Model the fold of this input.
Amino acid sequence: MSLEMKVPSPGESITEVEIAEWLVSDGDWVEKDQAIAEVDSDKATLELPAEASGIITLKAEEGDAVAVGAVVCLIDTDAQKPEGINEASEKNVLPTENESQPEKQETKKETYATGTASPAAKKILAEKNMLPSMIKGTGKDGRITKDDAVKATPSMGTKGDRLTETSRKKLSMLRRKVAERLVTVKNETAMLTTFNEVDMSPIFALRKKYKEEFKNKHGVGLGFMSFFTLAVVRALELYPDVNSMIDGDFQIKHDFKDISIAVSGPKGLMVPVIRNAENLSFRGVESEVKRLAILAREGSITVDDMTGGTFTITNGGVFGSMLSTPIINPPQSGILGMHNIVERPVAIDGKVEIRPIMYVALSYDHRIIDGRESVGFLVAVKEALENPTELLMNNEIKKALEL
Done:
């Protein structure tokens, strides 16, 4: 019996996906729930698990756009599992140092899989500026495993040994959609950016004093994101136009604060949403940021996790950015950019002192947000970050941190 595997719906309004990468080859034996492909929609990249065990026949090529509900592969559930396939080989796991290698491994047969790198191995080799052809695979039928790639050493020979190949790869549907949206924002909004600087000394002092107790109590770190998120929530209360969007000839204002957080994932930038941030404490924000970041890094984040934000925070500082003009995340009307923290000389009460300073930037849609609201919003964020004890904790630090 052949089981038809169809493309499941990744979310509302999505009618087609793209086969980003097959993780198995035509004719392979697959186990039920094994990831067999990665599919791209215009909002996220998702794994496609096998619905049954059997021999797989692929019905679509990498790069093909297929409709939701279309058949992408067949699984022959009546097929017998080939001899020699065990749990270790299926998962490309090498025996440990204490385990002996089978003798027949030395006479490994040459197949279409010989020299083929797994997705994880490809990424590691690319980071080392190496080609799969430069190393010998020790996996099933000569496949190059992640362990092979980790152990591979780039050649230290002459200049002629360097990698000089040029590759051409089609952009994923997600990346193409992101590019389209960014160009649309630049062309269809009156985007403007205003800047300010924040003295991070008060937050440094609070984190130094309470971070260990906070982590021991709640199991998450007391990072900068909770301070920034709660400062943004306060500023949005004071300047509600920043928490709005344009819909044709109408302005839509939100009475809730769903804060999108830009996170770097294996497939590029993702922007999951912290729902109803106005109802969260420091612990609540940090726990949600950690949960969403893990989902993004593991590639298991859903479309629903990234839909419906009303304002975005992005932190280029983690990559060393000193200053930037972040691009609005449509249909939102504002985005706050955080940057790296650098010790700088500043004037304090007529004296020069060295303080940890962060530059912050607010990009906004000038069609519905005027200079007064934009500058006032950013000043309100600055005030809350420079006086968090009073403005974010109501002068009750232990209670605010739930210690």
